[in-house]
Amino acid sequence: MAAMVVQRTGSVARSFCRLHVLTSPPQAYLNQQARTLATSTTTFSSTGAASGSGSEGNSPTGHATMSSASKQLSAADIKRIPDGEVRKSVFISQSNDVFTNLALEDWIYRHFDLTHHHILMLWINKPAVVIGRHQNPFAETNVSALERNGIELARRNSGGGAVYHDLGNLNCTFFMPRARYDRKYNLNLMIRALYREYGINAELSDRDDIVLLGKKISGTAAKLGQPNAYHHCTLLVNSNKLHLGASLAKDNVEITSKATASIPSPIKNLVDVNRTVNIQQLLSAVGYEFLRTPATQLTDGGRELLMKQRGFQLINPTDKWFPGITELRQNFAAWDWRLGKTPAFSVQKAIQLKTGTMASGAADQQHQPEMKVKVDVEKALIKSISLVLPNHDEPIPVVSDMVGRPYSEDCFHGITDALKGANTESMQQAMGL
């Protein structure tokens, strides 16, 4: 990618592109069988000119939804479409609920025709831990502690690692056809926005993270389907780092799992290097950088390109705007998705049994069997409980009414506490020692 010189003229450039707000949703309905929208709507371009219904007037925001014709376009056909025929929009979600925003993201991915239209969705969540589609939440965080602290646990549809969201974190989702997916384009666009607005020199790491002074300020993940794709990432502005660290702290147990594991990285807030950075100004800066940049080339289209784009839209993610989004939200918030999708795993922890008559002295304590409690979990339900002893090839089953119940850290510690309280002599007899 050729190096580009970015002039810091963000505040001036903004006067050339208007902000258009849809204060009420157009009349729209979703044909559940065909999964397409059919409405007559009016929307506004960045120049303020009204356009009637047509090929781009059949979605809640006045943009084209998926059709059989667009699905049939080959990757080569899509790549041949010149940048001059691709328009851009910036959608700003008015919700701070993580499940609603994940549902909105999924709705756009499923329904929008992105062949001639790229979208950047900007969104901010209340405190939440968001894990990747194939991750084990119990290996990434302490689920019980999150619940006690009122922090949501969410599982997204894309891969990648666990991240913490709060009101000091800006989320960006880039939507485009799979044929035009370019993760580095998106990340470099954000880097350009940081420099143009604040003079911040961030860099792209080998792992496609945005880093500043060697520390991570942005994580990244993607969903690659057909014909659409999206790439989403975060920008740490003034996130609460104490809460971030505590929310991603795991339980002190040994977990064996084939789930995708996060790679811990030192992090930095943008306000750590520039105190003037704030969420709303950064949101605007990233949005304008997106609108002034052609669809596939990291060049500056300036005022001329800004005037051709669709501009900004404040998005109200409700069923009136996006029919069926409430059901999507319910799916993202459901226990079966957030926890039930966890790949099978096992948890182990060493325990010290309660001393009995045989263990009254120090010499006797040396004869106590060293053991671990092992819990096997499938679909976030306890499958079995056993004791793992040295010199025993197979774990010894423990009969418990906890089998079949949902697993949690608090539940596991309840099991270990109960076994710790058992008399050593009785345990030895039960195990045939």
UniProtKB/TrEMBL annotation:
Belongs to the LplA family. Signal peptide: none annotated. One of its GO terms (cellular component) is mitochondrion. Residues 114-298 form the BPL/LPL catalytic domain. One of its GO terms (molecular function) is lipoyltransferase activity. Residues 42-53 have a biased composition (Low complexity). InterPro entries: aa-tRNA-synth_II/BPL/LPL, BPL_LPL_catalytic, LipoylTrfase_LipoateP_Ligase. One of its GO terms (biological process) is protein lipoylation. Gene3D superfamilies: Bira Bifunctional Protein, Domain 2, CO dehydrogenase flavoprotein, C-terminal domain. PANTHER family: LIPOATE-PROTEIN LIGASE (PTHR12561), LIPOYLTRANSFERASE 1, MITOCHONDRIAL (PTHR12561:SF3). Pathway: Protein modification; protein lipoylation via exogenous pathway; protein N(6)-(lipoyl)lysine from lipoate: step 2/2. Residues 56-69 have a biased composition (Polar residues). This is BPL/LPL catalytic domain-containing protein. Pfam families: LplA-B_cat. Residues 42-69 are annotated as: Disordered.
